[in-house]
Amino acid sequence: MGDSVTIRINGITKEVQKGVSILSAARENGIKIPTLCFHEDMHGLGNCGICVVEIKGKRDLVRACITPVEQNMEIITHSNRINQARRSILSLILANHPNDCLHCVKNGKCDLQDLAHYFNIKEAMYESIQVPRPVDNSFYVIRDTNKCILCRRCLVACQEIQTVYAIESIDRGFETHISTGSGKMNRSVCTVCGQCISVCPVAALYEKQDSNSVWEILKSKDRVVIVQEAPAVRVSLAEEFNLPAGTNLARKMYSALKMLGFDHVFDTNFSADLTIMEEGSELIQRVKKKEPLPLITSCSPGWINFMEIYFPDLLENVSSCKSPQQMFGSLAKTYFAREYKIDPARIVTVSIMPCTAKKFEADRPEMNSSGFKDVDYVLTTREFVSMLKEAGIDLPALPDTSADEFMGAYTGAATIFGATGGVAEAALRTAYLLISGKELEQCDIQECRGMEGIKAFEVKAGDLTVRCAVAHGLGNARKLLDEVSEAKKKGEVPYHFIEIMSCPGGCVGGGGQPFGSTLKRRLERAKGLYAEDKGMPLRKSHENPMIRKIYDNFLKEPLSEKSHHLLHTHYHSRDKFA
Questions:
Q1: SS3 assignment, position 208
Q2: What pLDDT score does 382 carry?
């Protein structure tokens, strides 16, 4: 066959696709070749050498992740020679790595640690050759070059997938290390998307930790501590408790949060519904008043950071709506405080997010429209899981409970915020009513769904054909925004509405999600969100009775003066630090 070749692998004849790597061919046939620098969502890097194999007729071992199969190639994946080579390579890496596993944030989740177990390495083969370097903890992404193994996965994530170029390879030879131009993360173009953290096999990159601060505040008798959880968290927690990706543990999550000691357990999905009311109304207003289009969503803080650095010319197109996290925080210290007769100075808001950039967003100086810092602490999904395990909570064994209804009720539209295309789909369900005066009969807008990098489509609503686009991953966002920028220069409007999510897959693939995240796993998480949406009695944000209540009793109407003050913000151009 023209598209396949015949090879012999460990003495067995196999037909495999032409041009695939030896590693892929082996995996397709149930043969495990150990790897360290390889990641299934990236091209082969060939940096570590752990995956070396023998090819008949070649003197030297070759790297399976970057060597393509050829017709009649004879491959040996495991032998004494290969095993000794792999052990030697691994031992050299370990000799240049700290021996502090018990104190490491990736203890038990480290690929290097796993390989040491795989090869049964119990003692050092070589003396330590490490020269200590200072840890860069200047920003929300912490960089520890002492633990870097130079696999360069982070460079692929930052430069090729996200096209941010915050980090780069510095110096040569034994002095080679991954850093920024300035040597500090806070003086770089880092968008805090956290995708470098997601793919790092060790703990050379990790997020600023807030769990200890949250533990301390939970002990306080003087504070009222409330918590919100983003939609993507409920479908990723299962992976940390040996359940399939996409299993929805929302109701068990609420039980766990009450056990941890939070005074009120609410849900970010509530404010996601509120975001749709504001953002949908903003879209209609822009169309009617011929204000700048397209309207681009502002829910993803990593994308907002990217836009402020690379696309300041599109600032007027970005929705003024705060993200659901920040809307929730603002209302917690105003609406909630008023209704529960609590001094807002006593309220502490904690959010559990799949996103590392949410930490940056919560600290933005403009996020204090309540008169206080809207969101006090942000925990990633990983930090939340560590708290659960520290408290001895077996999440799957807990009974199902509900979030507190006051700011916890939500619709199916809110839950799909966690998947790429979900915000656009949720917005269209409500915008259709606002534009046409009629309810959208078919809630499932398939054009919004899937892992294609950029999706463009149209939805007919009354007399208006709404032109939409969805992009996930900043590299795809850059392509779409370049198109929009060029169209604007010509006076053209290619789209009415654009959703952009910083992370591949959307929030299900956030930089704070459980390690081991791949596009395949992100898709399973998204399926869990769509399944919850499908089973909800209410699937459109404007149907949420608690959203209607907040407008009746507090905000009056979308885009009201109070809504603008509490739920909207502005963004600004930021320098490209060198």
A1: coil
A2: 97
Q: What is the pLDDT of residue 2?
A: 63
Contact 266, 405 (CB under 8 A): no
Asked if 224 and 173 count as a contact pair (C-beta separation under 8 A), the reply is no
**What's the maximum distance between 2 C-alpha atoms anywhere in the chain?**
80
pLDDT at 124 over 50: yes
All CATH 3.10.20.740 domain ranges in the chain, comma separated: 4-91
Q: What is the DSSP string of 501-555?
A: ESSTTGGGG-TTSPSS--HHHHHHHHHHHHHHHHH-S--SGGG-HHHHHHIIIII
Q: Which residues pair with 141 in a beta bridge?
A: 207
- pLDDT above 90 covers what percent of the chain? 93
Which range is least confidently modeled, 82-91, 117-126, 149-158, 410-419? Answer: 117-126
Phi-psi sector, 64: left (phi>0), alpha (psi -120 to 50), beta: alpha
Between 549 and 123, name the one with better pLDDT. 549
Distance CA 295, CA 479 (A): 17
Alpha helices by DSSP H, listed for 353-496, are: 357-362, 381-390, 412-415, 422-436, 474-489
| Per-residue model confidence as pLDDT tens digits over 479-498 | 999 999 999 999 999 999 99
- The CATH code belonging to domain 212-567 is 3.40.50.1780
Average confidence (pLDDT) over 7-19 = 94
Please state which CATH number belongs to domain 4-91: 3.10.20.740
pLDDT of residue 576: 59
Report whether 354 contacts 513 (CB < 8 A). Answer: yes
- For 25-39, what is the mean pLDDT? 96
Which residue numbers are catalytic?
A: 279, 282, 299, 319, 358, 361, 366, 507
Q: Distance (Å, rounded) from C-alpha 191 to C-alpha 302?
A: 5
Work out the burial of residue 294: count CB atoms within 10 Å of its CB; fewer than 13 is exposed, 13-18 middle, 19 or more buried: buried
Residue 171 pLDDT > 70 = yes
Beta-bridge partner residues of 458: 467
- The structure tokens listed for 389 are 């395990």
Average pLDDT of span 273-302:
95
Q: Where in the chain is the domain with CATH 3.40.50.1780?
A: 212-567
